[in-house]
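does this look right to u?? zinc ion version
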Amino acid sequence: MPTRLSFNYLLTPDGLRADQTLVVDSDGIIEAIESGGKGAHGFFAVPGMPNAHSHAFQRALSGFGERARGQDSFWSWREAMYRLAARITPEDLLVIARQAFREMLRAGFTSVAEFHYLHHLSDGRSGPQMAQAVIEAARAAGIHLVLLPVFYQQGGFNTPPAECQRRFVHASIEDYCRLLQELRGVPLGIAPHSLRAVALQTLAQLLVQADAAIGSRRPIHIHISEQRREVEECQAAFGRTPIDLLAHTVQLDARWNLVHATHASAAERALIVQRGATVVLCPLTEAGLGDGLFAAEEYACAGGRFAIGSDSNCRIDAVEELRLLEYGQRLRREQRARLANADGLGAVLWQQACRAGARALGEPLGELAPGKRADLVVLDEQAAPWLGHGPDTLLDALIVGGSRADLAAVYVGGRRAVDHGASAGEDADAREFAATVARLNQP
Ligand SMILES: [Zn+2]
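got this back:
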């Protein structure tokens, strides 16, 4: 029996439509969109946002490590992250990731690409337990998960791994592919951590063997060009900047998702557009870590695709990520409406990030259209940011003045996962999360 969900307004690939009904099959896929229905399930529905980059365990670090200690930077934050990572058990990870995934759903993210590198147990034993904890957390929260098991090999360009990185490191490509095989029950992608952490001669071989394990159509994600120091070290070691070096090392194409790309040069941005790769921007995390600002305006004008991710999960909110993305460009260029078109800011920004996010996850989602997953976010008709607005400017008001607090409901695969900002069982989970965070962050 198909489910029928009707809304006053629906944001479709063909534009905004009034009084529409989604017909959703038993697998949670949109079968058809029909006229009529009179908004029985809500006011204004937009596609659920794919979260194209997350490290769920870092949710436990939010708000810790904010005291000034001289030259605070990405690299001092990374030390705090390593201290936390060293302590987390599979049981802890289940609790932390479940909380992060619940917050994602409340914040408009209906699917997540989890960039998972905390592989081994704290005593050094390997096994799939940590990855299975992430999978179990996603199932418990009700979010659609694409797991990106990370291959991590070295501590920096041509540098062996440090003791604090041991839990991330696979002894060999074969070990990594064994993990991929063990996790085949969920959608997977391939994630060489970064050019810092994977040797160039290993990278090509890794892709061949991982493709053999999970198929050659799955997405590939990599951290790249996030920090100036990384760019300088790459140039010193190889005579090329990171994205240029990547394109000279592998077949850079539409499977590739370049996370951050903050310091990409104009030539590197042109290369990304030409090869059809996607840039995954994480504005709140990039701001929090003081990474810098990607030239998103120039990139978008050239036809570049960008998805968004909540990355360190210090604050989880799809609307705030998009606002900071736009405002970062305004501050950089000293001009307004940088990622808008003649129709406004909200619809184009939300839909671009959804479409690119769907490619980044390698899944049929990110649009309210037949054949796509029925993942959607319903806006609260009475929310303050759009009081006095009609449908044509409502999404602009969402991006400029709104937040996750203005979402009335969230559906994943046609099933209501969040209702009036709440989901079943969240209070007990939050208490368990609080106790876990307090214990893990004790000195
Ligand atoms: Zn990351």
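Residues 53, 55, 115, 223, 259, 311 surround zinc ion (CB under 6 Å). idk if thats expected tbh
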